[in-house]
Write a structure and sequence with these properties.
Layout lengths: L1 H17 L8 H12 L12 H18 L3 H6 L1 H26 L5 H11 L4 H7 L7 H31 L4 H36 L3 H22 L4 H19 L4 H38 L3 H28 L3 H7 L5 H12 L5 H8 L4 E2 L2 E2 L3 H26 L9 H20 L5 H12 L9 H23 L2 H6 L2 H12 L9 H4 L2 H27 L9 H18 L3 H39 L6 H18 L10 H20 L5 H35 L1
Antiparallel strand pairs: 1-2
């Protein structure tokens, strides 16, 4: 079991990585392909989907999340439409498809044909979202699909159960079937409402009476769909309807709590959102894992059977498409017109087509197919493999048609903002906060530590890595030139010895600019001047000695007057150094070291001012991507710390400084919105990021305080 879970998680993570490289292929198909690959591993070899486990572990929590997204107000307003979509339309589809299947495949009994129709009727709204991730789905059609998928799974399950009962008993009672349907459906809803209400009351009281409610409430929330589903199934009612009803009640709880117990609500929202995303991916992985075994059984059949099943699957899909289209085109119920538009209009016809094509059948269909018993009425279930194969082919037909047709019918989705815009304004927001807060911090180590942590908000995932690297190299060379010019200024030379300046300049020369390819690009302005000066001096010396050789006036070992003066000066310095005591030598070395440290602090201060000025200018001119400047700041700070021999790994930053910086970020976004420079949707995303960062920082600060208290107690 552990290996199965591990492989499924690896499959989800791998798909999430792969889809970045092939964005045009729907994620559902990538997951199915990964599932097919997993089916050839030893663990999944011969794997057969266990329907009960699948329904409890996967479908129940997903339906619970779907229920939480629906408000009681919307359910009340759209109740008649929900009933028509989930019950009437589903039941009519089962009846029509069942009768047609029985007419085409005469070997199958009517209850068997009804069972197949019940299996292929449920739709999958999650699959639709995957197929239309890059397209603009009309809001009305999208809402209709969500409302339909709320309860039509349960309708299909109840009718399937009824058909299997008839197959087992060989006894058909219309009145008994209707009574059974009502008992299962209404019973499941009642259990979900009552159980959900009791759990909500428990959670509300825990919220107000317990010191740390999240410790109790979140585990209760995670267990809720499983408990409700199992209780409903134990009493012979619909577990699916029960968990949907419970989810709706939990939506009511969230609206009631509003801004109270925000920590619990935020935590729950994040946890359930993550679980929902993972389970939705696992659903398609299971579909891919199950398909190879179905395909092997399919291709072992004779050619006539293969053609018959393919043709039957195609006819079933086309029939369901027509039923959905005709219903959407001719439905006059008020809510339907709100979602699809007025009848007899081009918009209504277009929406009807989209609704019909969007009837994708997914893993619920596959799970129901595998739930068919191997034996019924004391004998082997007749044509069980054929029913599973037809259901699988219908799933593939519906997914392929929607993947091809929907992107053609629907316009390309227009995002409120692009990823580039988000990165641009996020970068400006962080830079603004850094510039504001740096001027308020005297301690350099604290200032740099805070800057480094704030910069992490930007992230470093950039598609223009080569451009950033080139900019960094250019700006780093400019910064080295700036430092060199500063230490050779008349003011610095008047306060520091030539030896100190020379040593510091050599240190600056050693700052790497990472991978420069050309010597000219590696060397700064001052370094190139020095090289030209040295080459000129060398040429002058060669020319002078050559001239002396030609005139034969001196030996080859004579020196020029300038060389003689330099030699004399060097000898004098050596004699002076030789006569120094050990203590005097140590004092000279310490004085030079202190001068280097003082000069280093001056240069660090000047560099800060230089970089801050560059950042302010770039903010004024609208530059949001300052990653290369941030890299220069970090490189220079590393250089200064090496000279200081300051290798402290961690600096404690006051939590209030973080909160003040986050407040500056809020201010930047607010000003951008008021100036109509930042769109509302983008501002909402930035506000969310700031809130998350602020919440995380407060949480970490609280943990640090707790650790400090524990250390104090232990001491």
């Amino acid at each position: 079991m552990y290996y199965i879970v591990a492989l499924l998680v690896i499959g989800v993570v791998g798909t999430n990585i792969v889809k970045q490289f092939i964005p045009k292929i729907p994620e559902a198909f990538i997951l199915i392909l990964v599932g097919i690959l997993l089916s050839y591993t030893k663990i999944f070899n011969g794997f057969e989907l266990e329907p009960e486990f699948f329904m409890v572990a996967i479908i129940a929590p997903l339906m619970f999340v779907d229920g939480q997204r629906q408000s009681i107000k919307k359910i009340r307003e759209r109740f008649s439409l929900i009933f028509v979509l989930s019950v009437v339309l589903a039941a009519a589809t089962v009846l029509i498809v069942g009768l047609m299947t029985n007419f085409i495949e005469t070997k199958w009994t009517l209850p068997m044909a009804i069972a197949l129709a019940a299996i292929v009727t449920p739709t999958d709204a999650v699959a639709v979202k995957s197929m239309t991730s890059g397209s603009e789905m009309p809001s009305g059609v999208g809402e209709a699909l969500e409302l339909e998928s709320l309860f039509n799974d349960a309708t299909g399950l109840v009718i399937l159960d009824l058909a299997l009962s008839v197959l087992g008993n060989q006894n058909l009672s219309i009145i008994g079937g209707i009574n059974h349907f009502l008992f299962v459906a209404i019973g499941g809803i009642l259990i979900g409402l009552i159980g959900g209400w009791l759990i909500v009351m428990l959670r509300v009281n825990l919220n107000f009476w317990v010191d740390q409610p999240e410790i109790s409430i979140i585990p209760i929330s995670l267990l809720t769909p499983f408990v409700i589903y199992l209780i409903a199934e134990h009493f012979g009612t619909s577990g699916i309807l029960a968990v949907v009803a419970t989810g709706i009640i939990h939506n009511w709880e969230a609206n009631r709590l509003r801004l109270s117990s925000t920590r619990v609500q935020v935590s729950q929202s994040i946890i359930w959102s993550t679980i929902s995303e993972i389970l939705n991916s696992v659903v398609f992985l299971f579909l891919g894992i199950a398909l190879p075994d179905v395909a092997r059984k399919f291709f072992k059949m004779d050619n006539s059977t293969i053609l018959l099943l393919l043709g039957l699957s195609g006819i079933i899909y086309v029939m369901m498409f027509l039923i959905r289209y005709i219903w959407a085109q001719w439905e006059h119920e008020g809510s339907a017109q709100i979602l699809f538009g007025a009848n007899n209009t081009k918009q209504h016809t277009f929406y009807s087509k989209v609704f019909a094509v969007s009837g994708i059948h997914g893993t619920m269909t596959l799970a129901m197919a595998f739930s068919l018993p191997k034996r019924i009425g004391g004998v082997a279930f007749p044509y069980r493999e054929e029913l599973i194969i037809v259901a699988s082919i219908v799933i593939l037909f519906s997914m392929l048609v929607s993947a091809i047709v929907l992107p053609i019918l629907l316009p390309v989705k227009k995002e409120d903002y692009t990823a580039e815009e988000l990165n641009h304004f996020r970068g400006k927001m962080v830079d603004f906060a850094i510039l504001q807060i740096r001027g308020q911090i005297e301690d350099r180590s604290v200032r740099e530590a805070l800057t480094s942590q704030l910069l992490s908000q930007k992230g470093w995932g950039t598609a223009k890595r080569e451009v950033v690297t080139q900019l960094y190299q250019t700006e780093m060379i400019d910064m080295k030139d700036f430092v060199s010019d500063y230490i050779h200024s008349s003011d610095v030379r008047s306060r520091y010895s030539k030896q100190t300046i020379t040593i510091y300049e050599k240190m600056v020369d050693r700052i790497r600019t990472n991978g420069d390819k050309h010597l000219h690009n590696r060397l700064g302005k001052v370094q190139r001047k020095r090289m030209r000066r040295n080459i000129k001096h060398l040429l002058h010396e060669i020319k002078w000695h050559a001239q002396q050789d030609v005139n034969d006036q001196r030996s080859h070992y004579d020196f020029s007057p300038k060389q003689k003066r330099q030699i004399k000066h060097n000898r004098a310095k050596y004699e002076q150094f030789k006569n120094l005591s050990r203590q005097e030598m140590l004092d000279n070395w310490k004085n030079m070291q202190n001068e280097l440290l003082d000069l280093n602090e001056e240069v660090a201060k000047q560099t800060d001012q230089k970089i801050n000025g560059i950042m302010e200018e770039r903010l004024r001119t609208g530059h949001g991507d300052n990653q290369s400047i941030d890299m220069v700041r970090k490189s220079m700070e590393t250089f200064f710390n090496r000279i200081r021999r300051d290798y402290k790994q961690a600096v404690e930053v006051d939590n209030n400084l973080f909160l003040r910086a986050f407040q500056y970020e809020f201010t930047f976004v607010q000003q951008g919105v008021e100036a109509h420079k930042i769109p509302q949707a983008l501002a909402a995303e930035l506000y969310t990021e700031i809130n998350d960062a602020q919440t995380l920082q407060i949480q970490r600060a609280g943990e640090m305080e707790q650790r400090s208290e524990l250390v104090g107690i232990s001491i």
